[in-house]
Amino acid sequence: MTKALAHEVLETATRPAIAPHDLKRRPTVPLNDLKRGFGSLSEQLQAAAARVLSSGWYVQGPEHAAFEREFATYLGAEHCVGVANGTDALEIALKALDPAPGSVVVTAANAGMYSSTAIRRAGLRPRYADVDPETLLLTPEAVSAVLGDDVSIVVVTHLYGRLADVAGIRKVLHDRGIAVLEDCAQAAGAGAPGARAGSLGDVAAFSFYPTKNLGAFGDGGAVTSSRADVADRARRLRMYGWTAKYEVGEDGGRNSRLDEMQAALLRVQLSHLDAWNETRRAIIARYVEAAEGTGVRVLPAVGEGHVAHLAVAVARDRDAARESLTAAGVQTDVHYPIPDHRQRPFLAEYAGTSLPVTEERSGQVFSLPCFPELTTDEIDRVCAALREL
Ligand SMILES: Cc1ncc(COP(=O)(O)O)c(C=O)c1O
Question: Is 119 helix (H, G, I), strand (E, B) or coil?
């Protein structure tokens, strides 16, 4: 959706509600529709794909190098290291910080198990801090409450596209030698130009999974950092630990590469990211207004510090709200229903961990359709359905 359309989204906020019987006959408003994303840029994307196919370079060629440069500049970070997906990016970023083996990594338990998976794979131990009830993000106070001498890293997830208080958390860690890893998978483009998510901590991880704000046409990820030592280590770790061809200088290496095709397609997408993020915010603004005075509250996404990756609502009776939306032809999902410390394999290990906000909200949150190519009519239909809750 273009900027002009984003304004139309806002202007139609006052249109009369659509009668419920009309809603039922129309196709469901999908949570996402990746085909529309391709359609809106098909010529540029096909030209980029053709360029790669005819180039003879398919892995770590000129498109990859250009994407790494362009993405780092866009964020305001010194270095970008392309990798195969967001979970690899987290794991490589953790290892690139060179933590003491087996040390503790503080993270949130409400972010879909991604950081926990990477922490465990890196041979480190997750410890969970509770989140703020309004933002659902880690806060300096919550992090501070679980710090100890065994902590080497704090993973801060900019959940749903909202920037967490990285500066505040860094202040709490001051002088303790604890590093900050930003999980930016849901927050591509959040923040002020030149100081965006991905440039605020010691290192950061991105996912370019197709549904992300900056999505590839397959898997992809990146590690970003302004620390040369960390970026160099990440570069070695993503390719067998090589310091030079066939020469291993780093233990713990693997093969995790962003391919040339994805890099070329991501370069096209990157030039549209800011406009898409603005459209996403406009969609959520409509939902926030429509849900006022109902039994659900849509979390606002205001300003450049929030890129509205997901439109998340909080309901006391989530099942009833979702059922009513489904009946009105609106698809919903839950991000995320089970906190990490309550996932089955880890129940015994975290039996003594209590995270009241995380636990309560995991039973209340649900997500509404939010992607830049939603039509005004579809947004109207979601709003009409929200007003009925
Ligand atoms: C917050 C967060 N971190 C990490 C990831 C992992 O990314 P990937 O699926 O590319 O491994 C995702 C997305 O899936 C995510 O939403």
Answer: helix
82 and 112, same domain (yes or no): yes
The verdict on the CB of residue 189 being under 6 Å from ligand 1 is no
Could you tell me if residue 258 is inside a domain? yes
Question: pLDDT tens, 313-355?
Answer: 999 999 999 999 999 999 999 999 999 999 999 999 999 999 9
Same domain, yes or no, for 115 and 247? yes
**In this structure, what DSSP letter does residue 17 have?**
P
Over its C-alpha atoms, the chain yields an Rg (Å, rounded) of 21
Cβ–Cβ under 8 Å, residues 225 and 79? yes
For residue 205, how far is its CA from the centre of ligand 1 (angstroms)? 9
Distance from residue 162's CA to the centre of ligand 1 (Å): 15
Amino acid at 310: L
CA distance 12 to 42: 28
CB distance 183 to ligand 1 below 6 Å: yes
Distances in whole angstroms, Cα of residue 298 to Cα of each of 260, 269, 375: 39, 28, 20
Tell me the per-residue pLDDT of 206-248, one tens digit each, with 9 for 90 and over: 999 999 999 999 999 999 999 999 999 999 999 999 999 999 9
Q: Is 265 in the pocket of ligand 1 (CB under 6 A)?
A: no
- Say how far apart CA 228 and CA 83 lie, in whole Å: 17
**Number of residues in the chain:** 389
Residue 314 and residue 204 in one domain: no
CA of 208 to the centre of ligand 1 (A): 8
- Residue with the smallest CA separation from ligand 1 atom 8 is 86
Verify that 315 and 249 share a domain, yes or no: no
- Locate the DSSP E strands across 317-383: 365-368
How far is ligand 1, taken at its centre, from the CA of residue 4, in Å?
31
